[in-house]
Design a protein that fits this description.
The chain has helices spanning 44-56, 90-94, 112-118, 122-137, 170-178, 180-184, 197-210, 222-226, 232-242, 255-266, 271-274; strands spanning 3-14, 17-25, 30-32, 35-37, 65-72, 78-87, 104-111, 142-149, 190-194, 214-217, 246-250, 285-291, 299-305. The protein is of the alpha/beta class. Strands 1, 2, 3, 4, 5, 6 and 7 form a 7-stranded mixed sheet that branches. The longest helix has 16 residues, at 122-137.
Length: 309
């Protein structure tokens, strides 16, 4: 049975140079990246953030995905580890609660080359190398536009009233709660939703968890889209200007257009292929990672998550 785990390359800028965090594990007598096994019911992004806090005391949010390592453990089981880049802000470092213990004896911030050389396992070094490629391209600092499809709603044929007033089912309400930890892992700073009731209900648990207000707009609603009155371009352009991580909660037919518009404005090619990231199941979301410093660099990475992934 495969064991799934998640972790991060935590990074910061010290005297104009990027350094990454390695941990000295006492029990294993090795130097590695912070990571750990997925707990029951967790999503991979949620695990990555939790494990970084537990092993380093640093509260981080996730940036660009850096790929996966897989290897066979001594007990013969396969282990698959997903990694993300994660900036350690000055505030996070000041608030760190790290104390040396039986599991992690010490933390060490190292320049990229020294970190890659210090790591005990070549597979960890390969993850750091992927992060170095982002550094070389000048796209280390990122924000995200998260395209979210509303959770499971009452089907149109079972609902008597305007389509925009359809509500979530019991399953949909459960999904809306289940996706909160995964969304939180990416440091959501703004919530924008279609005016449809099913979209508003989907982001309610997230809004409560983050204590963020919800901005409603008909410009990304299904009714406006079907009547050719939507203005996806306006909504996307504003979010790109703001450069803050935002959730855009919308509908099945609208989301591919939202993703395609992000690709078009940022010069990401081919936009048609990218738009597949908008083809989401209910309560699924795609995270489009974008550069803060190089707006013309296009979409740096795309990852898609569902309530059960």
């Amino acid at each position: 049975m495969t064991v799934f785990a998640a972790g991060a390359v935590c990074w910061r800028v010290v005297d104009g140079k990027i350094k990454v965090l390695v941990i000295h594990r006492a029990a294993h007598r090795d130097i590695s990246l912070p990571k750990g096994k997925v707990d029951p019911g967790e999503t991979l992004p949620q695990t990555a953030v939790r494990e970084v806090v537990e092993e380093t005391g640093l509260a981080v949010t996730l940036g660009v995905p850096l790929g996966v390592t897989n290897y066979t453990m001594p007990n013969g089981r396969e282990k698959v580890v997903h990694y993300w880049a994660a900036e350690a802000t000055d505030e996070a470092i000041a608030a760190s609660t790290f104390l040396p213990g039986d599991e992690v004896a010490a933390l060490e911030w190292l320049p990229l080359k020294k970190a890659a050389a210090a790591l005990t396992y070549e597979r960890d070094g390969q993850i750091v190398e992927r992060f170095r490629m982002l550094v070389d391209e000048g796209v280390t600092r990122t924000f995200a536009i998260i395209a979210l499809r509303h959770a499971k709603a009452i089907p149109p044929y079972q609902f008597h009233g305007p389509d925009a007033e359809r509500t979530l089912t019991e399953r949909g309400r459960t999904e809306a709660k289940a996706i909160v930890p995964g969304l939180r892992a990416f440091g959501v700073e703004k919530i924008v939703t279609s005016t449809a009731v099913r979209c508003r209900q989907t982001v309610e648990p997230l809004s409560k968890a983050l204590k963020l207000p919800v901005k409603q707009t008909a410009l990304i609603s299904q009714d406006a889209y079907e009547s050719a009155e939507s203005d996806i371009r306006q909504v996307v352009a504003k979010r790109l200007r703001k450069q803050t991580t935002v959730v855009l909660c919308s509908h099945g037919p609208v989301l591919p257009e939202i993703v395609r518009e992000v690709a078009r404005v940022t010069g990401t090619a081919p936009a048609v292929t990218v738009s597949r990231a908008g083809d989401l199941p209910v309560a699924g979301f795609s995270v489009l990672h974008l550069s803060v410093d190089r707006p013309g660099a296009g979409i740096i990475a795309i990852e898609t998550h569902t309530p059960h992934s």
